[in-house]
Amino acid sequence: MTDSMSFTRVAAAAFAFVAAATLWIAAPLVHAQGAAAADPGAARVKAAVEAFFKGRYPVDEVRKTPLRGIYEVRVRNDVLMYADETGQYVFLDGNLIDLKGERNLTQERMEELLAIDFGTLPLDLAIKQVAGNGKRVVAVFEDPNCGYCKRLRADLVKLDDLTIYTFPMAFLAADSESKARKALCAADKARAWNDLLLNNRIPGNAGTCDTPLAKVAELARKLGITGTPVVFFANGKRLQGYAPPDRFNRMLAENSKG
Fold it and tell me: How, if at all, do strands 162-168 and 136-142 pair?
């Protein structure tokens, strides 16, 4: 992974959207201080960006662009973002970020566009398991060979008052289908699926029973699912990929409200 890619992942983590990584950051150039002092707009932008990153990533340079009111912000030698003169919004890695609100506005808009009517999901195709009163509900698309699915499953089984509808997929590896089939052919499908993802324990049956795998694959195609894990909350909002427990729990609370 390149330094630029690593920085982008850490930057995204500051918005609580991606897991953070530890990086070495070069010392800021003196030029950044001089430019900020000479231009009040640049000073606001520099202060806002550094405050957002809580001092972890000093700004090396802020300079005007040909677009009125838009500044180029350079962190290290190879990472650029663009900020408005108020220091509230930046474009980073194709995302529009509200620094003061700590919100990824691009991601929020994509979540709106990708939302579904939860009630239209064919839940009879899913493996159902209930913890506590089960009043909170999620639907999860998982592949038995998906590493992030395993991490998500480990988080999910720790939650109380949650109903999980698992739609098994089989597309990541040659043995994904055989593993999924054996879990679906087990007497206790929910336990077998959890055991498969959490302990890599494959059920001992032949896996020759009728399964919904083909129908789930077609459902995933219609929903535009091309990778796992994917989570749908009760209000239809979609989470693509793995979210750390703190973020996932916030999303679960926000998207489980009536």
Answer: parallel
Full-model pTM? 0.71
Q: Are 26 and 59 in contact (CB under 8 A)?
A: no
**How many angstroms separate the CA atoms of 38 and 45, rounded?**
13
Where on the phi/psi map is residue 17: left (φ > 0), alpha (ψ -120 to 50), or beta?
alpha
Question: In this structure, what are the phi and psi dihedrals at residue 69, rounded to the nearest 5 degrees?
Answer: 80, 5
- In tens, the pLDDT along 168-201 reads 999 999 999 999 999 999 999 999 999 999 999 9
CATH number at residue 167: 3.40.30.10
Rounded Cα distance between 14 and 217, Å, is 34
47: DSSP letter: H
Q: How far apart are CA 233 and CA 118, in angstroms?
A: 8
Residues 195 and 245 in one domain: yes
Query: Structure tokens of 91?
Result: 């474009």
Same domain, 73 and 125: no
Same domain, 147 and 167: yes
Tokens of 158: 């720790």
Domain that holds residue 96: 3-109
Which regions of the chain are under pLDDT 50? 1-10, 12-32
Q: 100 and 153 share a domain? A: no
- Split into its structural domains, the chain has a count of 2
Strand partners, 127: 166
Contact yes or no for 14/82 (Cβ under 8 A): no
CA–CA gap between residue 56 and residue 76 (Å, rounded): 12
